[in-house]
Write a structure and sequence with these properties.
Layout: H1 3-15, E1 17-18, E2 21-22, H2 23-30, E3 47-50, E4 53-56, E5 65-73, E6 94-96, E7 104-110, E8 116-123, E9 131-136, H3 137-143, E10 151-157, E11 184-191, H4 194-206, E12 213-219, E13 222-232, H5 235-247, E14 254-257
Parallel strand pairs: 5-9, 6-8
Antiparallel strand pairs: 1-2, 3-4, 5-10, 6-9, 7-8, 7-10, 11-13, 11-14, 12-13
Length: about 260
Amino acid sequence: MSRSLTLLLLLYTLGACTFGVPISQRGNQQASGVPATTPSSQGNPSSYVVFGKRYYVLNSAEGFVQRGVASWYGTKFHGRPTSSGEVYNMHAMTAAHKTLPIPVYVHVRNLDNGRSAVVRVNDRGPFIDGRIIDLSYAAAKKLGVDGPGTANVKISVLRQGERKPTSTVRSIPLPVDIEPEVSLFIQMGSFSSHLNANNLVQSLIAANESSARISRLQTDNGLYYRVRVGPLFDVDEANAILSRLRDKGFQTARIVVQDDAE
């Protein structure tokens, strides 16, 4: 075989592939979407407490959408373990969230500049009022958050194989308008008998819902024992947990706001 013919064959081979991936298959790789995930064995307690506030981890992130403020964290935490046990890498596209099950992939859209990116949630935070997600340095840079430090964002959980948000589960509307600083709860029931309230708590535990608590309310008509989950972070979290509880058969569950008697 002549030297010129060998060179032509080599150029033809290189033209048919890029770094060993045939051109015909490159589109399939780009369309593969979100990979499957396995829940972290140590990153998903039913609830946890930080700075005296209890947070309730969602069993399912299906259809979860949230709007709020994003921030980011970098060199101070680089190389340290995350809540999932993974080592935090500020140069990877990851993030922290208070209540989403981890790991989970989230589409983040910066509402201030229109940029968007997909991140993998593998940590807990940010534990500052009003902030809903803490981005890695790499994610913050791609979204244009690294300069200002914070940004208004919309986050949408992605399903396996999905590349960007397509549709979301309809939120269950609150019965009344609420102020942002008012605490939200999901009330499972209210009883004049402590025994009945405790029986409901045991039913919830049997359904893998161990975060419900009994609170007392004295009224003009007597003492009542209320079974509640909360306080919850915001309306989106409350809607997601309410939907999950109703799917498990607790049809009387409803969202309530903290009242003056508490």
